[in-house]
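Hi R.,

Here's the chain you asked about this morning:
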Amino acid sequence: MSDFTITHNRGFAEYRLMRPESRNSLTFEMYQAIEDLCKSPGDAGVIVLTAEGDKAFASGTDISKFKDFQSAQDAINYEAMIGRVIDAVQTSSVPVIASLHGVVAGGGAAIAAAADVRLATPDTRFGMPIARTLGNCLSVANLNRFVHLLGESRTRYLMLTAEFLEIDSLITSGFVSEILESASLCDQRARDLAIHMTKLAPLTISATRDGLSRLAMRSIPADIDLIRRCYLSDDFFEGINAFFAKRKANWSGQ
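And here is the predicted structure, written out as tokens:
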């Protein structure tokens, strides 16, 4: 059985981790496939990340992959690879929805944090227990992402105690948007939400995602190009016409 599957259906692409026996620990090939899909989603308007099994969305990198590390360059290359994957998720040309359940840790936590929308189940536990496991560290970019999403205090607790944040903290911080009762219901809600999002104005979606990414840089950058992208587009005028005609807009992405 493959370590992952990628399916295209009804306008979205679903990447599914398929290693439940190892709590969906990620191989380098699995990371690469996520990066490739996010960089080239084809005709998919949304990407959905899901995982097989009841115990974990993803428990982090398959630790056996570290056995061959022999030099600092091996670590540098690994962090560079992880950085490319996370950046690909965050900067994907289409929105990314993560359907979370059980353990969400290590590289799986970083991927989830880079997604646009996170759904979860009551048993979802989010952590980066590297101070208790590998003794490695997060890139500053990933630390910044966690601080932006969880707050500095929670990030400090998460990293310095190697404990997991339970679902209540994830809800309170706004890290997750919806709670579903089971992993299967969470996956189905993610798929339904993906189909819904493919019917919305693509330029509004892209401008919003890009604008939020800029705000995450902790500065207030220019947004004239985003305003022009939407307000001078054919879709903007199509939306106005459709509103007054009381019909659904026919978005073109132009």
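One quick note: Residues 202-245 form one domain.

Cheers,
M.
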